[in-house]
């Protein structure tokens, strides 16, 4: 905290927790660490507790949070990959997120319970909690969250920060134009002196989910069947582009549609991660064909090389009217003219989708073509994909461990005195 | 064999019988052997150097440093004599907070609890405040209600005068939308008024200069204009920027061409003034010679009149810097024949000799012209023939210069015409006959019009 010569450096750690709820996953961990402790899928499996298949017995019971005693038709909530990915009859997959903010508070509570008991393994009343939120989060949602943290979890202090601001902090900037390409949407938010300019924020629904949907369409058109991996008992080695030979597993009856959809979506995401690549220039068959293909084996055993298709697939993210570069242009254009040079000089790319191979380069290129020549354009993206994915969480981790930030928390005393109305004032 | 073993100090395995005597006297014998071999120190060799070579038992100095015996005992780590200071998870309060909330952090157990060090960074901008009566008395405005002003001051406090952020968080539901400049104008206006009527100066807007309060004055109109200009500058489309750049490049080209033309005009002007000087002299001689009108003097007088008219026009329009050219002094016109110099007797034919300044080519050309006119190259040098012959040759030289200039301009005109036609396919450039000189006409045209090819701006616009 302070050196022997009285100089003040570093931060001051007060055991704060940072929560970064997203559409794809929730990141949670201690402030001052460089990666979150856990990255939990933002879905919860809800199924009947009475019908427990054999497979579950092997799983340690610890990861299962129960809503009530194991009697009657009570529901059980299955959280995290090890729980969700087990085929269970009647288990529905539900998400608590909607449009960038928490929508289903009961489910979110389950998630927080899980975080405190299984990830942090420490009582919630010991840790101040810093939450990230989307720029357009509505006031009732913010207040509901504060209420939940103070009243149910007895948090000693609470704070809410816009994720764009934190992403800018994670990249060492207080003024930046944050281009956040997430699962459900892509957004461009100007941040000036650590304050997000809400009125200038723009977003488009082209996110990672869109890419996964496109991958599904593409594979359907290519007549490649994406078999769910949990259904495969065994498969044989076959030659490329040959018909797959596999035996199916005996699955319990009554698997829900939502769960199957979710599992398949994960596989399409996986496919995108392995195969899809963004070309530096707008798609051109000839150029794309010159790049060596990528081999991919599907769960059923079928495998083939993907050549130009993998570049063609990602073109859906760069449509002229809704592409990332267009978002940045309109966000910067909506800002005050005095602020624009600084914003163009610090375009920060982050979010899970930016981990896609070639994505930052393409965006930088498109921006260079569109940016006004009177501004110096500098596109900044953290070198490692993890850093880009966890940018908002990292920013939160940095912010919550800075000594001078410790005066900003809304403490439980303040909450008791002022109620949740002060949230708008204290967390701008 | 045994000798070598002796020298190398190796004991012979077979012969060495271990007897009581050998054990007792072994050392002695060895010593004896060594001392017998020991060499004396040579004169002048330092004792230390000698000791390195020969010591008592004739051992070589060790190649590696050896242990000195105590080494192992000293290797025990001595890592500070103090005890490890303990860290504790201790509560603290932050004086920068108003609520005395208690947080916990790690600190040294021994550290005395002093004020939270990061509290010193809690800096706030001082924003002027006003009471209701003050507002009613001084700050009333038709444009701003008190609620709106209060909202502004509140936002200023919350966002530390970051007006762009304030503008973003402005409560548009309750108040009408205002520009950043409006907000700034109102705020600085309030600051100005309050600092006048109140005693406590607001640090951020009032500076004390020579004991006199100076209030920051915000020039909203200027700022609005500046912002508008900035906005326009940034909102230019790509095409506009490209157009601007090509226009700038064109402008540069045009200016370069203009400079080139001016240089040429200046050269030509020199030639003309030369002709003028010549013809004036000819006129005078003509008058003196009682009306001996030669066609050249007629044409040159016309040319002069024309020229003067042109000059007037140019002076009126002020388009080109012709005046500077007008005053150019001509130091040489046609051929200047040297006056007879020196004393004594000389041949009159000497006066007809071309001066050395005239080049070979010009001399040849003049001779050619003379031959065409059927004039003897070397006529009989009577007084009058001598004079007229010299004048004629001087005029011929000038005419040749002008002819050369004309052909070069003619060529340039044609080149420009071709350029124009290449750039605008399908169009033909009709050159007005006034500037179109065929070589047949050239002799009868007045000089001024020839010069007009390069002189007047109107005709230039046709060719560009």
UniProtKB/TrEMBL annotation, chain A:
Family designation: Belongs to the actin family.
Gene behind the chain: LOC106123957
Domain of life: Eukaryota
Family matches, as InterPro entries: Actin, ATPase_NBD
Protein name (Swiss-Prot/TrEMBL): Actin-like protein 6A
Family matches, as Gene3D superfamilies: 3.30.420.40, Actin, Chain A, domain 2, Actin, Chain A, domain 4
Coiled-coil blocks: none
Pfam families with a match to the protein in the record: Actin
Automatic annotation (TrEMBL), chain B:
Pfam family name, one: DMAP1
Subcellular localization(s) per the UniProt record: Nucleus
Gene Ontology biological-process entries: chromatin remodeling; DNA repair; methylation; negative regulation of transcription by RNA polymerase II
Basic residues bias: start-end ranges: 303-315
Keywords (A to Z) from UniProt: Chromatin regulator, Methyltransferase, Nucleus, Transcription, Transcription regulation, Transferase
Taxonomic classification: Eukaryota, Metazoa, Ecdysozoa, Arthropoda, Hexapoda
TM stretches of this protein: none
Residues in DAMP1 SANT/Myb-like domain copies: 116-194
Annotated region (Disordered), positions in chain: 271-320
Domain DNA methyltransferase 1-associated residues, every copy: 243-429
PANTHER family on file: DNA METHYLTRANSFERASE 1-ASSOCIATED PROTEIN 1 (PTHR12855:SF10), DNA METHYLTRANSFERASE 1-ASSOCIATED PROTEIN 1 FAMILY MEMBER (PTHR12855)
Record-linked InterPro entries: DAMP1_SANT-like, DMAP1, Swc4/Dmap1
Protein name per the record: DNA methyltransferase 1-associated protein 1
Keyword Calcium: no
Keyword Transferase: yes
Regions of compositional bias (Polar residues) in chain numbering: 280-302
Chief location category: nucleus
GO MF term (any one): methyltransferase activity
Domain of life of the source: Eukaryota
Species assigned in the record: Papilio xuthus (Asian swallowtail butterfly)
């Amino acid at each position: 905290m302070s050196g022997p010569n009285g100089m003040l450096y570093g931060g001051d750690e007060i055991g704060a927790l940072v929560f970064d709820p997203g559409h794809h996953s929730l990141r949670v961990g201690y402030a001052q660490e460089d990666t979150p402790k856990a990255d939990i899928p933002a879905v919860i499996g809800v199924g009947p507790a009475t019908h427990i298949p054999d497979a579950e017995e092997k799983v340690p019971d610890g990861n299962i949070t129960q809503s009530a005693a194991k009697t009657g038709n009570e529901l059980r909530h299955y959280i995290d990959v090890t729980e969700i990915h087990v085929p269970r009859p009647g288990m529905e997959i539900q998400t608590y997120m909607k449009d960038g903010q928490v929508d289903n508070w009961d489910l979110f509570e389950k998630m927080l319970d899980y975080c405190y008991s299984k990830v942090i393994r420490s009582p919630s009343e010991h840790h101040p909690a810093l939450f990230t939120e989307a720029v357009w989060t509505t006031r009732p949602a913010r207040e509901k969250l504060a209420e939940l943290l103070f009243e149910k979890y007895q948090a000693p202090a609470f704070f809410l920060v816009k994720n764009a601001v934190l992403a800018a902090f994670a990249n060492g900037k207080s003024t930046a134009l944050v281009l956040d390409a997430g699962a459900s949407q892509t957004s461009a938010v100007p941040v000036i002196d650590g304050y997000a300019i809400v009125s200038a924020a723009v977003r488009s629904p082209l996110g990672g989910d869109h890419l996964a949907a496109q991958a599904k369409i593409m594979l359907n058109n290519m007549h490649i069947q994406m078999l769910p991996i949990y259904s495969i008992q065994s498969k044989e080695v076959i030659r490329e582009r040959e018909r797959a030979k596999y035996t199916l597993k005996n699955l319990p009856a009554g698997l829900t549609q939502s769960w199957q959809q979710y599992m398949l979506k994960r596989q399409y995401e996986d496919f995108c991660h392995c195969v899809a690549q963004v070309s530096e220039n707008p798609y051109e068959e000839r150029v794309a064909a010159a790049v060596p293909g990528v081999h991919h084996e599907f769960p059923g055993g079928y495998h083939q090389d993907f050549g130009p298709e993998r570049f063609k697939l990602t073109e859906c993210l760069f449509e002229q009217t809704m592409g990332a570069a267009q978002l940045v242009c309109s966000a910067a254009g909506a800002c005050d003219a005095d602020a624009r040079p600084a914003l163009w000089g610090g375009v920060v790319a982050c979010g899970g989708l930016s981990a896609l191979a070639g994505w930052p380069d393409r965006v930088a290129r498109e921006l260079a073509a569109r940016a006004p020549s009177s501004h110096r354009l500098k596109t900044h993206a953290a070198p490692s994909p993890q850093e880009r994915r966890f940018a908002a969480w990292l920013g939160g981790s940095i912010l919550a461990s800075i000594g001078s930030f410790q005066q900003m928390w809304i403490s439980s005393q303040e909450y008791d005195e002022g109620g949740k109305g002060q949230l708008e004032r204290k967390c701008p | 064999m045994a000798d070598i073993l002796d020298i190398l100090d190796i004991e012979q395995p077979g012969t060495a019988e271990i007897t009581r005597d050998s054990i007792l006297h072994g050392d002695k014998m060895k010593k004896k052997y060594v001392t017998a071999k020991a060499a004396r120190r040579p004169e002048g060799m330092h004792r230390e150097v000698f000791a390195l070579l020969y010591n008592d038992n004739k051992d070589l100095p060790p190649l590696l440093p050896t242990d000195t015996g105590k080494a192992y005992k000293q290797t025990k780590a001595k890592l500070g004599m103090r005890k490890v200071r303990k860290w504790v998870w201790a509560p603290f309060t932050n004086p920068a907070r108003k609520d005395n909330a208690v947080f916990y952090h790690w600190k040294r157990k021994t550290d005395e609890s002093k004020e939270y060090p990061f509290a010193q960074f809690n800096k706030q901008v001082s924003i002027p405040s006003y009471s209701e009566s003050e507002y009613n008395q001084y700050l009333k405005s038709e444009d701003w209600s008190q609620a709106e002003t209060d909202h502004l001051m509140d936002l200023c406090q919350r966002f530390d005068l970051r007006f762009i952020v304030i503008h973003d968080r402005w409560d548009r539901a309750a108040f009408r939308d205002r520009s950043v400049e409006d907000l700034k104008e109102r705020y600085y206006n309030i600051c100005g008024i309050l600092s006048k009527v109140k005693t406590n100066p607001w640090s951020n807007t009032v500076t004390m200069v020579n004991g006199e309060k100076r209030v920051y004055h915000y020039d909203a109109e200027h700022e609005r204009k500046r912002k508008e200009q900035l906005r326009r500058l940034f909102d230019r489309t790509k095409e506009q920027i490209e157009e601007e750049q090509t226009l700038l490049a064109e402008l540069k080209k045009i200016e370069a061409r203009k400079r080139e033309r001016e240089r040429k005009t200046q050269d030509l002007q020199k030639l003309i003034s030369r002709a003028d000087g010549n013809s004036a002299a000819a006129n005078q001689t003509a008058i003196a010679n009682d009306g001996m009108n030669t066609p050249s003097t007629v044409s040159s007088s016309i040319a002069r009149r024309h020229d003067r008219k042109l000059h007037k026009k140019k002076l009126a329009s002020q388009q080109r810097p012709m005046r500077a050219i007008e005053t150019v002094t001509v130091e040489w016109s046609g051929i200047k024949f040297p006056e007879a110099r020196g004393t004594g007797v000389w041949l009159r034919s000497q006066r007809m000799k071309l001066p050395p300044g005239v080049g070979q080519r010009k001399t040849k050309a003049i001779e050619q012209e003379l031959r065409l006119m059927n004039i003897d190259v070397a006529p009989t040098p009577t007084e009058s023939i001598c004079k007229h012959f010299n004048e004629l040759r001087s005029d011929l030289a000038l005419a040749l210069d002008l002819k050369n200039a004309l052909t070069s301009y003619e060529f340039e005109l044609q080149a420009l015409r071709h350029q124009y036609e290449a750039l605008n396919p399908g169009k033909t450039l009709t050159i007005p006959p006034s500037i179109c000189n065929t070589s047949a006409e050239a002799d009868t045209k007045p000089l001024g019009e020839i010069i007009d090819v390069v002189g007047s701006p109107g005709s230039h616009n046709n060719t560009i």
